[in-house]
Amino acid sequence: MQKLIYIFWYIRKMRYVKIANEQIHDFLNQLKQYGKLYAPVKVSDKFYDRKEIDDVCDIAFDYVRTLLPAKKYFIHPKEKMFDIDIENGTYDEPEEKIEPFVLFGVHACEIVGLRILDGVYLRDYVDTYYKRRREAGIIIGLSCLPDDHCFCNLRRSDFVDIGFDLFLHELPDGYLVRVGSPTGHKIVDECAELFSNVTQEDIAAFREFEEKRQQMFSHHGSFDNMRYLLELTARDELWDEESEKCLGCGNCTNTCPTCRCYDVQDIPDIDGKTAERIRFWDSCQFRSHGLVAGGHNFRETKKDRFFNRYVCKNSYFYGLGTSYCVGCGNCTYFCPAGIDYLGNLLRVRSASEPEEVVHEHN
Amino acid sequence: MNTTENIYSLYKCRVLRVYDLIEDVKLLLFRFENPDIAESWTCKPGQFVQLSMPALGEVPISICSSPMRRGFFELCIKKTGRVTDKIHELKPGDFVGVRGPYGNGFPVDEFEGSDLLLIAAGIGMAPLRSVFMYAVDNRWKFGNITVINSAKFGNTLLFRKELEAMRDVAEAENIRIIQTVTRDPDWPGRVGRAQEHIKHANTDPEKTYVCVCGPPQVYEDVFNTLIKNNYDPRKIYVTLERRMKCGVGKCGHCIAGTSTFLKYICIDGPVFGYYDIISTPGLI
Ligand SMILES: Cc1cc2nc3c(=O)[nH]c(=O)nc-3n(C[C@H](O)[C@H](O)[C@H](O)COP(=O)(O)OP(=O)(O)OC[C@H]3O[C@@H](n4cnc5c(N)ncnc54)[C@H](O)[C@@H]3O)c2cc1C
Ligand code: SF4
Ligand code: SF4
Ligand code: FES
Question: In the sheet where A90-92 sits, what is the strand order?
């Protein structure tokens, strides 16, 4: 059985402070002293992306989702594992100095997502590359309001109690800040002049925000029985119809906060003396993912690959008692074929047609 | 190499012997260069290693020797692509990088005190040879033993000569070796598929553990025959294959199963029980 809580986080008595809107830019500037600051910025009409922040006024507080999830800071889309000396057959780990960095504005679902990645990358065999970056990263959470694709509430990942250093909850005139780690305490202590005590009005506003947020989710209840329903409906026509539309592009897995498959390749240098062993994000939606020598493919058809993502994401992550899917909705939002992941799960849950959802980005 | 705690670092191993088994399949003997590793490295039958060829990549290969021989191990490798082609060019004295051992292996401790029936088809004898060697090296721990080794032709029977050469030991030790071919009219020995010879085994179905390895299409018939012959389905084990990149439960390539039984073949397997197999679509 896996350890319940991974090395970085353990539940402690929460500490609560408040920061007023007037202080927030000061605070963000001060955060830079702890490392490079990354936060969501608006990059086009519809899209937000996390970028290194120079001017803190660029930070978008009201984003719902970014182009790539926070996992990109911990498992790089492409990274070198070893420098290979072909003649001597030696494999040397590249000297990489990992600077501390701050991720500002991470939503609850993504924090759960990172803890799921911890479960994969730090369990049994510890992945050095991931671990070093995870230790270097400070996580500042931010509350959010859902759009039509969000269903973290059905996934029990809409509220987090560990996995962050600080978590900011929106108030009418500032933020209620939960302190979640010793690093979080240190930051609050070192920026003490920016924080004040939480008042009764703040608590009332916090409650109100949480209630409003719960009401904004399009669907209620739980998806806990989804893994059984998926198995029971595996032969339904739904999967033929939906997989038929799929382009096999891998957007859904790239944008998923918990999809983590990678491929490895040795790239020889032109001199033929050295090579690099690199790893890069892979996708179970690609035909090559399940292909083995001799031409046999363990996921031969597009339907096999399509359904595989549904069962994989909806399977049980023992470490947290949740599923691997945190309900962020990215896979629906970024699917070029307009495949509605949540809609399909709802059809599995209730065996009826999905309610019309407006895809304002299509 | 191995200066850090990096789980993907490789142990340097020296090739000591390269032996042609059948067409396209070679048996290689390796030794760890680092004496500390040679001293401390242990494995279980059914586990595998990741073997690296510089600038080409890594492949998972089952350990096919007995874990009892410290510091040395053998791999039986079929030439099927980029990396394995290059492995076939290795000569004694060459070096390779190896990491592992990985996987759960066969539950050999649980097998103790029981009879053993090993059923191999095609290249399936490679992982089963480690179980067999282990059982021979620990003969007193097991009851009767039968090995059924099957292939299409006499000259594609893996480890044919080695098993033939063991005839005397086998007789003295209550071990039955059955080698059978399916499509070779010139073969003087037994013919037919592996499952047709289960009835000739010297094992008592009531108290036998069965290990099966072969191409995916053989399993169903083997299972059916075993169960018809009163072998206990709870004591049937198979070892599976998948595309693998990491071997340590990270890269996701070997994930198989369904939403209630999602398994990493590399760490939860490659050895699975009969009930896991039949209740999980897509496992084999
Ligand atoms: C647990 C396990 C044990 C194995 N034991 C043996 C053994 O004892 N002897 C043996 O000859 N073969 C064994 N194999 C199969 C062997 O790993 C493949 O034949 C080998 O990876 C083919 O690599 P290639 O580069 O030559 O082929 P290519 O077709 O060029 O493959 C390219 C890459 O894809 C991956 N790949 C392709 N096929 C497989 C596969 N079947 N399994 C895993 N990864 C694959 C590898 O990373 C490989 O380098 C085993 C596989 C597994 C999973
Ligand atoms: S993003 Fe959509 S089209 Fe692309 S692989 Fe995923 S489901 Fe298929
Ligand atoms: S499967 Fe889709 S909704 Fe679930 S976590 Fe991944 S991207 Fe988000
Ligand atoms: S081989 Fe990478 S997860 Fe199993």
Answer: A90-92, A78-85, A274-281, A262-268
- State how far residue B244 is from chain A, nearest Cα, in angstroms: 9
Please give the residue range of the domain that contains residue B91. 11-102
- Residues in Cβ contact with B223 at an 8 Å cutoff, skipping those fewer than 6 apart: B212, B233, B236, B274, B278
Q: Is B154 on the interface with A (CB under 8 A)?
A: no
pTM here?
Answer: 0.91
Interface residue A83 vs chain B (CB under 8 A): no
Q: Whose CA is nearest to atom 2 of ligand 3?
A: A331
In angstroms, the CA A200 to CA B229 distance is 75
Same domain, B115 and B36: no
Q: What is the mean pLDDT of each run of 10 residues along chain A (362 residues)?
A: 50 84 95 96 94 94 94 96 91 90 97 95 92 95 96 93 94 96 93 94 96 94 90 90 94 96 94 93 92 84 92 89 93 95 92 52 42
Widest Cα–Cα separation across chain A: 70
Could you tell me if the CB of B240 is within 6 A of ligand 4?
Answer: no
The verdict on a CB contact (< 8 Å) between A126 and B243 is: no
Q: Is A229 in the pocket of ligand 2 (CB under 6 A)?
A: no
- ipTM confidence score: 0.88
Q: Which ligand is nearest to the CA of A340?
A: 2
B258 touches chain A (CB under 8 A): yes
- Give the residue carrying structure tokens 């760890």: B32
- Report pLDDT digits (tens) over B237-248: 999 988 899 999
Question: How many distinct structural domains can be found in chain B?
Answer: 3
Residues in chain B: 284
Q: How many CB atoms lie within 10 A of CB B206?
A: 11
Please name the residues between 240 and 299 in chain A that touch chain B, using a CB distance below 8 Å: 260-266, 268, 275, 279, 282, 284, 289-294, 296, 298-299
The enclosing domain of B77 has a CATH number of 2.40.30.10
- Which ligand sits closest to the CA of A245? 2
Query: What residue ranges do the domains of chain A occupy?
Result: 2-216, 226-357
Task: Tally A–B CB contacts below 8 A.
Answer: 127
Report the amino acid identity of residue A132.
Answer: R
CATH classification at residue B278: 2.10.240
Contact yes or no for B239/B153 (Cβ under 8 A): no
Distance CA B76, CA B243 (A): 18
Residue A323 and residue A116: Cα distance in Å, rounded? Answer: 9
Residue A254 Cα, ligand 3 centroid: separation in angstroms?
10
CA dist A3 → A6, A21, A119, B6 (Å): 7, 39, 9, 21
